Amino acid sequence: MSTDDRPPARPRPATIRDVAKAAGVAVGTASKALNGRGRLRDETRNRVLLEAERLDFRPNDLIKSLLRGRTFTVGMITTDYFGRFNMPVMSGIEDALGAAEILVFLCNTRDDPDREWKVIQSLLAKQVDGIIVMGRRTDPRPPIAIGRSQVPVVYAFSSVEDPSALSLLPDDMHGGRIATEHLIDTRRSNLAHITGPSDRDAVRLRRAGFEATLQDRGLAIVEDHILCGDWTELWGYTAVRELLQRDPKVDGIFCGSDIIARGVMDGLRELNRSIPNDVAVVGFDNWDIIATQSRPPLTSVDMNLHDLGREAARHLLAKLEGEEISGAIRLPCTLVVRESTRASTD
Amino acid sequence: MSTDDRPPARPRPATIRDVAKAAGVAVGTASKALNGRGRLRDETRNRVLLEAERLDFRPNDLIKSLLRGRTFTVGMITTDYFGRFNMPVMSGIEDALGAAEILVFLCNTRDDPDREWKVIQSLLAKQVDGIIVMGRRTDPRPPIAIGRSQVPVVYAFSSVEDPSALSLLPDDMHGGRIATEHLIDTRRSNLAHITGPSDRDAVRLRRAGFEATLQDRGLAIVEDHILCGDWTELWGYTAVRELLQRDPKVDGIFCGSDIIARGVMDGLRELNRSIPNDVAVVGFDNWDIIATQSRPPLTSVDMNLHDLGREAARHLLAKLEGEEISGAIRLPCTLVVRESTRASTD
User: Which of A160, A320, B68, B281 has its CA at 20 to 30 Å from residue B3's CA atom?
Assistant: First the structure.
């Protein structure tokens, strides 16, 4: 820090007055030239534009915002750290809003209600046009407190207890269905499901998709073949040993996450079961670094979170235009097939 | 969308006029009461504050910003997708700026120079107080084009060709040093280094740290023990087989990334080498999901990227206060010790 406490003067940015003066025209004329309005001789217009360029003149968005009553900014709130699931959602949101020339404020509330309240006050004071709330998981949360503000709000990868709110979520049940259908379609008939904590919405729904598909395809639901635990590799590794003791003839395993699948595959390898010839494995998340680098590479359900972010942004823009939308919208998953389920005869 | 194309009128937010009218006082009096200035009877002040509360009155930051010449906003530019390395840096930046009541615009330029130019124009039009540029890797990039704007810029986890610019980077050489020192301190004497592409700054510096430490500790640098390849698990898996053919007596491996270390550990297990008893392994990145879930858990170098983000924000704030800082600042790494290097006798 310099000994003089006052910051040095920064050169003042050029104003429209400077441009008009340099071009030798009235301020009104300069304004017409810069906004492409009114009748002006080409020579005059060009002179103004040239001076604006030379002086690096930039119109001040703050003034425009005050006049138009819109700031072309949106607040994006994450309730937790910037994690693996938020990342692609954020990227999709920024993508869609950037295309609409809207800039995004990024705020992290760290699951702290006081901090959340403060962040929302700041966003409202900055006159954001809308707010998108992201979660770390999809279990319902209370709505954010925006007081009497009428600012549109969308929940992305985050559901909310208020039925009049709009939230966008992956269709976990559909994800469970396509994983199970794929195992049956690749000639597996004795299936198991190793997954995360049984009290989570995502676990409940993926399991429901698994069971509904077995029923639809005339296969029995075996209670012993469904193991709930943690979202860890160690749990997958432990659970698959337990599973094969209960029934050595299991030939297909749908895992609740790629991390669990990774542990399951390590366990199978140590039990000398070939993947996919003896046992086929499907994961959930399609987490690139895990799914593609597994041996063999892992077939996995993709929640299309980037698209979910884009959709959340599009719905916010629609709300800004006055459209009334509410409720939970569930977006389809897709299956990415890799070697862990490809039958050797394929 | 409703059939009527015009958006429905949204209730107008309360203005200071509405508050004054509701409290039965002049606008000037209301302003004094809300700003805590001037002399007013307690009863009057309280009536104004009560009405402001009831009407959900929010002062408009845009007007304040115009008056103060500062917007309390900062632009944060990522040159690539929101990745594994950006995430903690972003989180640290948001953390430190949030504490200073500054909101952060998040912009992704997707490595596209046209898009970067547009994003910078938008940020300057929004009158941001400063810009932080993040990279996906630490190899030098050209400075961003801010024209004649005097807005302060800091590069975080991103270095720049312009020596007058300020960039904050992890000290990769220091990281290489502490990894190697730890292997030697845990009684390993025949060390190897399996790492990423040899043309990357991070690879060159980590290797330099490895070699300098061997020299300092009186150990030979064996060219055959240094293998450069890709940042993949498969490369680690392949390289460790090659390495042990070249020299079966290697007892410690410093890996250029956790992903590579993961492949190295898989390879060692299949070659029936016990970790850490036969061979100790150190990774780089301290990527939680990889390092903690490996078997055994992986000792790894942490670049402290959250702290790096915080430091970048602090330096930006100092620049805003007029401090003149430039050059590349390298921040120390730390070693997180886990089972992959703990000698069995410990």
Answer: A160
Give me the pLDDT at residue A101, please.
85
| pLDDT on residue A149 | 85
When pLDDT is cut at 50, 70 and 90, the band that residue A134 belongs to is very high
More confident residue, A240 or B321: A240
Nearest to B108 among A73, A91, A101 (CB): A91
Integer Rg of chain A from CA: 28
- Residue pLDDT, tens place only, B195-233: 999 999 999 999 999 999 999 999 999 999 999 999 999
Q: What is the CATH number of domain A70-170+305-332?
A: 3.40.50.2300
**CA angle B183–B185–B186, rounded 5-degree value:** 65
**Is pLDDT above 70 for B181?**
yes
- Spatial CA neighbour of B77 closest among B126, B130, B125: B130
What kind of fold does domain A172-303+335-341 have according to CATH?
A: Rossmann fold (3.40.50)
Nearest to A61 among B76, B107, B126 (CB): B126
Angle CA A167–A168–A173, to nearest 5: 115
Give the residue from A320, A335, A286 showing the smallest Cα distance to A84. A286
Alpha-helical (H) ranges within chain B are 16-23, 27-35, 42-54, 61-68, 86-99, 113-125, 172-185, 201-216, 233-246, 258-270, 288-291, 305-320
Alpha-carbon distance A184 to nearest alpha carbon in chain B (angstroms): 30
Q: Which CATH superfamily is domain A1-59 in?
A: lambda repressor-like DNA-binding domains (1.10.260.40)
Q: Is the dihedral of CA B140, B144, B149, B153 positive or negative?
A: negative
- In chain B, residues with a C-beta closer than 8 Å to the C-beta of A66 are 60, 62-63, 66
CB-nearest partner of A103 from B81, B126, B318: B126
Is residue A344 pLDDT above 60, yes or no?
no
Examine domains B69-170+305-333 and B172-302+335-341 and report if their fold is the same: yes
Instruction: Provide the 8-state DSSP code for B145.
Output: -
Say which residues have a Cβ less than 8 Å from residue A328's Cβ, sequence separation at least 6. Answer: A159, A167, A168, A169
Which residues of chain B make contact with A234, given a CB cutoff of 8 A? 293
From chain B, the residues in CB contact with A266 under 8 A are 295
With an 8 Å Cβ cutoff, are B125 and A58 in contact? yes
| Res. B3 pLDDT band, cuts 50 70 90 | very low
> Is B98's CB within 8 Å of A104's CB?
no
Residue of A4, A5, A6, A10 to mutate for B, most B C-beta atoms under 10 A:
A10
Q: Where are the domains of chain B?
A: 16-59, 69-170+305-333, 172-302+335-341
Would the CB atoms of B322 and A2 count as touching at under 8 Å?
A: yes
Q: Is pLDDT of B82 > 70?
A: no
Contact A322 B8 (CB under 8 A): yes
CATH-assigned architecture of domain B172-302+335-341? 3-Layer(aba) Sandwich (3.40)
**pTM higher than 0.90:** no
Give the alpha-carbon dihedral of B109, B111, B112, B114, to 10 degrees.
Answer: 60
Cα–Cα dist B154/B160, whole Å? 10
For the record, the structure tokens of A337 come out as 């097939």
Nearest to B103 among A87, A107, A232 (CB): A107
Q: Does domain B16-59 have CATH number 2.10.10.20?
A: no
Q: Nearest Cα to B133, choosing from B110, B156, B117, B100? A: B156
Strands A130-134 and A73-78: parallel
Residue A90 · residue A309 · CB < 8 Å? yes
Residues A261-275 pLDDT 10s: 999 999 999 999 999
Instruction: Tell me: pLDDT of A95 over 70.
Output: yes
